[in-house]
TrEMBL record:
Keywords: Copper, Electron transport, Magnesium, Membrane, Metal-binding, Mitochondrion, Mitochondrion inner membrane, Respiratory chain, Translocase, Transmembrane, Transmembrane helix, Transport. It catalyses: 4 Fe(II)-[cytochrome c] + O2 + 8 H(+)(in) = 4 Fe(III)-[cytochrome c] + 2 H2O + 4 H(+)(out). InterPro entries: CcO_II, CcO_II-like_C, CcO_II_C, Cupredoxin, Cyt_c_oxidase_su2_TM_dom, Cyt_c_oxidase_su2_TM_sf. GO terms for cellular component: mitochondrial inner membrane. Residues 1-91 form the Cytochrome oxidase subunit II transmembrane region profile domain. GO terms for biological process: ATP synthesis coupled electron transport. Binds a copper A center. Component of the cytochrome c oxidase, the last enzyme in the mitochondrial electron transport chain which drives oxidative phosphorylation. The respiratory chain contains 3 multisubunit complexes succinate dehydrogenase (complex II, CII), ubiquinol-cytochrome c oxidoreductase (cytochrome b-c1 complex, complex III, CIII) and cytochrome c oxidase (complex IV, CIV), that cooperate to transfer electrons derived from NADH and succinate to molecular oxygen, creating an electrochemical gradient over the inner membrane that drives transmembrane transport and the ATP synthase. The lineage of its organism: Eukaryota, Metazoa, Chordata, Craniata, Vertebrata. This is Cytochrome c oxidase subunit 2.
Length: 194
């Protein structure tokens, strides 16, 4: 669960979110190193009066500043592609849940079981109990098993919606007339908002 003035991500609850956090840290370190190098070079150029004119024409310098960005882009692209393919693969799900977005509520249906469906409405602010979170509490929560692969089929009845659970690393658009699919697996029990 997010807390006020939080600067980072929520704690990871799924293997995919753990991979996303590692990739974020990896990319942020590369951006930090590039920014530090550029700031150092700019400060050197502004403070020193010495210039070496032969380095401006050097073939080696041009080769380095052409190849180095390509290597950096590869260092960012390869982990990113690996995570994209990990997020897209379906590993023989144990449970399938159909999720339909409506204008003010979500409908859930456990398709592996007969006649097991319900609607989930947001609790109005006036009816919240102490300790409950405004705009996050619902009357019927989705209950899912942990350490099992679950397939979510997501669509919408009327307008565009977004079905997201940040701590699981999930965000899938619910679009009328289109069936989107995502998988999730929680590694620990808990109450996850989205």
């Amino acid at each position: 669960m997010a807390y006020p003035m939080q600067l980072g991500f929520q704690d990871a609850t799924s293997p995919i979110m753990e991979e996303l956090l590692h990739f974020h840290d990896h990319t942020l370190m590369i951006v930090f190193l590039i920014s530090s190098l550029v700031l150092y070079i700019i400060s050197l150029m502004l403070t020193t009066k010495l210039t070496h004119t032969s380095t401006m024409d050097a073939q080696e310098v041009e080769t380095i500043w052409t190849i180095l960005p390509a290597i950096i882009l590869i260092l960012i692209a390869l982990p990113s592609l690996r995570i994209l393919y990990m997020m897209d693969e379906i590993n023989n799900p144990s449970l399938t849940v159909k999720t339909m977005g409506h204008q003010w509520y979500w409908s859930y249906e456990y398709t592996d079981y007969e006649d097991l469906s319900f609607d989930s409405y947001m609790i109005p602010t006036s009816e919240l109990k102490p300790g409950e979170l405004r705009l996050l509490e619902v009357d019927n929560r989705v209950v899912l098993p942990m350490e099992m692969t679950i397939r979510m089929l997501i669509s919408s009845e009327d307008v565009l919606h977004s079905w997201a659970v940040p701590s699981l690393g999930l965000k899938t658009d619910a679009i009328p007339g289109r069936l989107n699919q995502t998988t999730l697996m929680s590694t620990r029990p808990g109450l996850y908002y989205g």
